[in-house]
Amino acid sequence: MTPAVESVKLVELLQRPATYGIVKAGEFQTTGIQMLRGGDIKDGKIGYGLPYVTKQKSSEFSRTVLQTGDVVIALVGYPGDSAVIPDRLVGANISRAVGLLRPGRRLLPEYLAQYLNSPVGRAEFLKPSAGSAQIVVNLADLNKLQVPLPGLHEQRQIAETLGDVDGLISSLEKQVAKKRDIKQGMMQELLTGRTRLPGFSGDWRSMKFAEMLSYQQPGRFLVSSTDYVSAGTPVLTAGKTFVLGYTTETTGIYDSPPVIIFDDFTTATKYVDFPFKAKSSAMKILRAKPGADLRFVFERMQLVDFVIVDHKRRWIGEYSKVEVDIPSTDEQRAIARVAEDADAEIAALERRLESAHAIKHGVMQKLLTRRTRLLAKEQIA
User: Fold this and answer.
1) How many domains does the chain have?
2) Given a cut of 70, is residue 375 above it in pLDDT?
3) How do beta strands 213-216 and 52-53 pair?
4) CATH number at residue 111
5) Which residues belong to any copy of the Type I restriction modification DNA specificity domain (predicted)?
């Protein structure tokens, strides 16, 4: 039988209680000692481009000069995000917004960081600030955190297993970013006519968006209740959130996609190819007129540099009058298909990325709550 795992207060596993760093950094320097801030720690990694403080200022907080094996945690910024200090930051220091955890001999830094970043760990040490206007990590509460403590060998196995999943996630994130960059560069060439697809050579003509798109007010498609559910008809906004939630309402559903939804105040746009309901009347529903390919027009809108200087509705009075050069309908469709193919590749990678996150979440839950144990070789034998 696999032996039970004890839980130990974090402070008992550290060389000294968790502490914070430089309180008042003063004016940043061009050289000196790098200082890590709360916002520099995200998704288990530490960013680059850290500010510098003077050597004298760092020496005033010598207790938080970083060493190999230290773990840091964001107290604000991205509260709770933790990371093991990389070699490049040994000798650096931390700000007041960062906590320093220096593990003792019974606790591996990599295991500690994984536990702190896990839903299990975060749920515990962020519990005291739940419901507050601002989520912060309190070091006194963090020191009291009960940490499940398997042996060092199993800690290493858990950290390596979760680290392998982190590697997959990082690789997929880079692939998604690369595909997005490729699509952006390709679209800038094709949508402006600087590069032509094979078989097309005709002249382009200038047209206003109002000549290519008709608009409809969203009034009769507005959702009645914002008590959203987990499944049903999506409720949309043209902003960053896009899908606000789902409704079980069966009337007033827009069911003639595809369309472009246009935020009348911010000019944000979304291409929608499924039935939906709308949240706000500050939206226009745009459809293609004869001779215009809707997807091509949507992609072309992403290149418009429209400067917003005040808060007012934009479509009728301003945006619809913007002129752009467009090719024949056939060439529009061909360019649109290129965009769709690129988006399909990105979507496939994003699904793999979502699956990788789900796998890590599941593995974390099982390993760090001890529902699953990794066996040593001698136990397997």
Assistant:
1) 3
2) no
3) unpaired
4) 3.90.220.20
5) 52-175
